[in-house]
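Let us work through a complete example step by step.
Step 1: write down the sequence.
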Amino acid sequence: MKLAAAALLSLTVSVPALAAATSSGQLPRNVVPVLYDISVRPDAKTLTFSGAETVTVDVREATRTIVLNAADLDVTSATFDGKPAKIALDKDAQTLTLTLSAPATVGRHAVAFQWTGKISQSASGFFAIDYSNADGTPARMLATQFEAPDARKFAPMWDEPSFKARFRVTTTAPAGQLAYSNTPVTTVTKQADGSQLYKFGETPLMSSYLLFLGMGEVDRKAVKAGPVEIGVITRKGVVDQGDYALGAAKRLLAYYNDYFGQPYPLPKMDMIAGPGSSQFFGAMENWGAIFYFEPTLLFDAARTAESGRQQVHSVVAHEMAHQWFGDLVTMEWWDDLWLNEGFASWMEGKATSVLNPTWKADAVAVAYEREGAMQLDATAATHPIIRHVQTVDEIGQAFDGITYSKGQAVIGMMESTLGEVKFRAGIRTYMAKYKYGNTVTDQLWTELSAAAGRDVTKIAHDFTLQGGVPLVTMTGARCAGGVTTVSLSQGRYGLDAPSKTAQTWHVPLVVATVGGGSTSAVVSGAQVTPVKIKGCGTIVLNRGKGSYTRVLYDDAGHAAIVRDYAKLTLEDRVGTLGDDFGLALGGYQNLTRYFAVQDRVNAGSDPLEWSVVASKLGTLTGLFDQTPLEQPLRTRTNAMLSPVLARIGFEARPGEEPLANNLRETLVGRLGSNGDPMVVARARSYVGQLATNPTAIPASIRQPILSTYAINATSAEWDQLLKLMQAERSPVVKNRYVSLLGAARDPAIGQRALDLIKTDALTPPQKASLLRSVAGRHPDMAFDWAIANRELVESFVEQSQRGGYVAGLGGGSNDPAMPGKIQAYADKYLPEPARKPAQQTIQLIGVRKAAAEKLRPGTQAWLGM
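Step 2: predict the structure and record it as tokens.
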């Protein structure tokens, strides 16, 4: 899944051990599914469906009760081997218990159910996506989203990842519509009422959350990649926008088949584009039927910049990596979700780096993904990568930056430590050994250790079983006889008091000298570790930024880094910018150290460096929002960045490198957000032409130009944006306009956006998007409105987001009363297991406030105040 976005060499099936349950909240292990035969008949008009299934089960020990999952279903009948069974539904536990007339004997049996259910208008379970066709007529696409615990909303199931089984799906679709699932269609039969009965082939062994069913008035386009057919399924009229994704998927399939040493096992792999949105995810790795929301799969050259092409490739690479890490080999339980998501996040970057080297994916990961992980991991709101998950709410909370971005960084660190060849050998053995089964993380470490010829578990456990960010500090260096000895120690990097408590890691990193040698070392504990390197040049700690750690230089070491900044690799340059800014945020050094490095970024620097600088200055400005420092920061930032934009121009140039395109978007967006008069005027001119020319804005700057217009909009300009939204036929463009309606800096316009949410003009996902957009500019207004209209908000918030959505609206507030208001909301309206996101929001508000105080003196000095 991409978030709004892993016993024997022969085939092995994971069979849960006999027990009442592995832990509270999990199903008993005495009865397991073998094969589901599921038939559903949806009624898209009434948003209901009926279903029937027969499940072949393996009874492992005699029992009179069978417990499985069901949620939001009206189960009307149940039989065991054809005999009626009593039904008991537990709504809170989301379980269905059958009581049999006589104990079931050990062996194979058949359990059958009939039920009715509801089709949701938010992206969970069996759901509908409403949109308009090109001619303005209404359309509705149906799809499923089952990760993590929502297959039970589709059919009674053993809805836990360790209960792998095979699935056969049958469904009825209206005349003229196409139905699609994980496997190819075996037969399509026209019914007396004109509908079509679709039967799909049997799936491989897989977890229930990977099952998929969709239907609608769609187009499909396909290419062959060896024996596999790769398809793109879209709403009518836009299937050609899937050409880039098809080409990328074909290349990725060949790369992954080779990398994992296991060929993709299904005959087809469809990529389905949904014209909607979710508060939770952007794409989902259903085996053989990957679901994407349109912006993450389709590339519209007339409206999408180069960054959009890069996003499509990254998301496709992520979801395709899941076809192995997650689908072929699946975590035993959600505690090890990072085996899916961390690995897929790392693999998307790995594959992108190999297949598209000009995108500089490794450096981009250092600049953004690593920093994103550390922002959360360096606070009291962190948690270990592997953490115990028990309730449905806790499962949803596991999909966060620690699981994804820190997981990605730790996998990258392990590859850097072991070497590419040995690391890949361990992955191939792991895949061969556990295919079609379930694993826990230590089984991965075992295979990597065997391949590397060294035990990696000590390092791996330090980074996965405890939260937090290590800090490697240089306390001195001396050179003698052409060899430099560096003194290093290991502590903990944190942004608040709880995250600064002492903690020990075994930190692997490469220490090098500029123009000299390098050496690998492991630094652990507060005691000084001497590290020797050939050469007497500038010391570079954590060269390549392959290890997940902050590094802190002594004064002489940092001065040398500033002096020789241009001689560093791109990864080290952007990593140094990140480390120095982060260390200032945590109070470990003065902000002047960051500004000294920033001053080394000049006209000849890589576009990624300028993008990082613009991002850091945006963060700094945000910290002082609505304070006397805000406007001086905007003015200074504009003075720095305007000449950079002037150099690269407003429109893309033939032959320019991809990251220059990305920088152009970043600069226009930052300057526009700051109210730069020239950029704002350009935005107003472009948007004024959209009513008669929908592609008037150059694709390379379309998104930041629209954002600039929306942020600086007057009331009359907001009206124009509303008209554009109402007239728009493309669901993707329409959804973008909806979000923009909440972006205005003017609070009176923010209130108009909130009023719009109360109307029937928007779909439930659009209402969620608009409210979150308002919160980006006016967190206090948005939070208070959500509390005052709580029932309305709950009607469009997805179940997986109920713990964090409303609390998150207030996350940007500087009002001292906001933490108490968030806590009061959580205490009154959220069950205890769902309160963790609210508590995290409160903690992060405190971190932001403390960071502003730490950076105030350095900021004032930089501004000459």
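Step 3: interpret the result. The CA atoms of residues 539 and 557 lie 7 Å apart.
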